[in-house]
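Hi there,

I know you've been waiting on this one. I reran it after we fixed the sequence typo, so this is the corrected version. Both the input and the resulting structure follow.
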Amino acid sequence: MEVDAAHPAAAGDELRRLLAATLSADKASVDAATAGLDGISAAGDPRFPIAVLAVAAGDGDQGTRIAAATYLKNFARRNMEGGLSSSALYVEFRDQLAQALLRVEPAILRVLIEIFCQVAEKDFAKENSWPQLVPLLKLVIQSSDAISPGHHPEWKTINALTVLQSTVRPFQYFLNPKVVNEPVPEQLEQIAAEILVPLQVTFHHFADKVLSSHDGNKLEYEQLLLITCKCMYFTVRSYMPSGVKQILPSFCKDMFRLLDSLDFNSPPEDADTTRLKIAKRCLIIFCTLVTRHRKHADKEMPHIVNCVTKLSKQSIHLSKLNSLSDRIFSLSFDVISRVLETGPGWRLVSPHFSSLLDSAILPALALNEKDIADWEEDTDEYMRKNLPSELDDISGWAEDLFTARKSAINLLGVIALSKGPPVVSAASKRKKGEKNKGKGGSSIGDLLVIPLLSKFPVPSHGEDASSKAVQNYFGVLMAYGGLQDFLTEKKDLTATLIRNRILPLYYLDQCNPYLISTANWIIGQLAPCLPEAMSTDIYNSLMKALSMEDAEDLTCYPVRASASGAIAELIENGYSSPDWVALLQVVVKRLSAEDENESALLFQLLGTVVEAGEDKVLPHIPGTVSNIANIIMNLLSPVPDPWPQVVEQGLAALVAMVQAWDSSAPDENKEHEKREWQLGQTAIAQTLSIVLQKAWLLPVEQMELTLDSELPPASCVNEASFLLEFIMRSITSVEEITHLKVFELVAIWADTIAYWDSWEEMEDQGVFNAIKEAISFHQRFDSSGFFMKMLPSQSANGAQSSIIGRVSSFVTRAIAAYPSATWRACSCIHTLLHAADFSLGAEDGRMTLVVTFGEAAFSYFKGLSDSPAGIWKPLVLAISSCYICYPDAIEQVLCKDDGNGYTVWASALAQISSSSFTPALSSESEIKLAVLTLATVIERLLALSMGGTKVLKDCYISLMESCIHLKDVQEDGDDDDEVEDDDDDDDEEEDTDDDDEDSEDDDVREETEEEFLARYAAAAAAASESIEVVEEGDIDDETQDIELGYLDEVDIKQVVLSLMQKHITLLHAQSLPDDLIERIAETFPESEQMLRARPQT
């Protein structure tokens, strides 16, 4: 089939001219050409895609053809969902695209194949509506130039296999992952039977060509082998077509031959890249066969083990190899790990244990020239590769390890945990990733690994990195780091290793930084199983490492960084320092403004030390805050947006310290301690004010002079908000306000958050807290109404606004930002409306806020109103606060777009106030607001002549239930503590039960394929459901004491009784449940007469 170059959409020359113009160096010409092409495509001519394809696949200038292919790719991406053209023309376009792909040169193929991927996934994989594709591919591949020379020289084998690769790519994942044991799709079965089975003979022929050729002619065959391997991988990654089962032995034999041919005695050259990529793909296929299709690959497992074991023993050459070669060794170790986790794994791998350890794993772990070069040139890269933090789960099924060293560490851990063939129990399961526990007997870690590692002596004094003893011992240390799971239950052995094999390194005459950094890492890895008795020695060693100075020609940053990380790991695992003050002093002493990377790490560690040290470090917090503040101020640049990471970490450390100081406040009856604590609080607040002045006020003054930057800065808003909150809370006099420039800081802070749009749950909590503290500060000290005054803004728009207005802008946009922000923003709405002082001529401002909040909350609520949800509660209550303030204005807001808006909201209010709603109204303030609003709504519904409606009845019943609930909450406020105690006891019992269950799960067996598929489908379904379900916010946010202001003083009981008396006929008209009537009578004895007069139903 030939590409039709004729098209009515535009003359061929004009189309080519526009496409060629898109290659111009002049931006205006490119924009004009693109606009012209877009205009032609928008004209709606259905043959436009075919016309562009004709240019791309034609005989013109290659630059123009690439431009055509690129434009067509983007056009297809934009229009694939809606259809590229009419059905008939789309089929024509699809067929011509497939034909074009078989002939075009590589530069065009790389672009057009992306279009084909979209088409094939939609039409062939998902819809199965392209029955002609497989026969066409079969014919083309069999007749292509490299397979049948002379038949169809225009059909290029590499192009045809590339099309095949794109065709099978969608099948690498289950098409219907929720279906247990999903059958192989019929399209994939067809490809396997008609293309892959015959292709095995060709694959073997290509392998012969590559293995026997020693000149440049083998490159084409290597590319064909690589593409074929990718096709096979995509085919078997999830499914196993019956046709592939037939050719699997032959295909594996050819992969064995290719892997056996690898020789790493000399560094690979550029010409070897494709061969290495083939090897990588073969190893990935082996991983897939072992993990996913073991029953079909059982006969090949001994050969797989022999092949990859032989390959892995060339790891002694790793230091000379590139990253692709390193990845090959990584995969070879991963294959062995996977085999070892299977049923026959022990029998197949155990004969190789000794040789693997000696000749493969330890050489991969030993210090080499590449490590030394990384240390000298890029310390961060050195730590990423050699001090990994993601070795928490040693498993044969671990994925994405990527480096030979990480994979070797993982394999060593799997070997150490092995105890022989797993014990089979009919009542037990062995899931992938669980350890091969087995009852009784010694593990290989005891029998082989530890004794072998013990043969390597601790290096002597003065040996440097060129020493073989140092290089080998580096590998020993890396090996210990991978034995975390093995050593967890062996505390005596762990203590012996730390005492005799790790700690002596810190006391050599010349501490070797390569060994010390690794020793730090090991201590961090073994943090969960370190004995308490050694804490002094361990912390002293780490603090010595933390203080290690750079050598004359060698940085010791990895030593200090790994020591910092190890100390943090110890603290987070509950391994306390014997001297918190000494540790704090060492950390603070190392802090400086000279090395930002190191200071950023130390700031993180400082926050951890302060949080864990508690009372031990408390007296030192004011002085430490001052030291940190000086460093941060030296790091602040004149243009602070964005601030460097070290400043962010420094501010986070300050937040940790002020939170620790807050939590240590003594009781009021301890006058002396309280006085001392307040002095410290005042000193900290003064220091924080100076920091924020340098960060915020000074840049504003500079901007007024230079006008060369946009302020206020958005950096570290959350941390700065925590600090500002602390400053405001510490104020006790007007003099302090002036001295600390609180009003100026609050104005800049409010200006900063007014246009905040970088919403992130963990980054906004401080802002919400500061808003509430700002309103409290406003109540206590803003007698002049500064918060209500219109102030000039330093932001881009420069519009004047008040502090209250700026804060309200943040709150309004936060309502719909994310679920937890909705809860927090709605809580702030109550505070702003009921606690802020609008008496100083700002009542109009209050109404503006009410309308703005009401519109935002109701707009978001309407999008969620189809079915009741927990997020209803904060939104409906926020609207209630607005309604209580200005009922008429909010009623207009609710009915602006929908005449039933008021009824919708009233119904929702009745629902969230009912006893059956979850989460229920739980705080006294929430219930009070609901009662007051329901009473007002009922009055309004009666005024609207809606006395007999369901919404009125629901509101009346919810009003009565809420009143009863309010009395229960007021009387039983102390019950929560008892419930919490009971819950704690229950948790302890549950934990004990879990431990018992764990202890019984010793006899395990390998998970069957059927069990794996069932678990996979269940996990896919659960993942799908978790995506569909919208989170409703943190549970901690669901119970809130909201601010009610003067409403808190309203006599709720009188309001309800007055409503009942005023509308006695309403009470009589409602069909109230008998149990509710009894509870009303108990709650309001005064209503007994009204209830008695109620007609019986």
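Quick highlight: The radius of gyration is 36 Å.

Best,
R. S.
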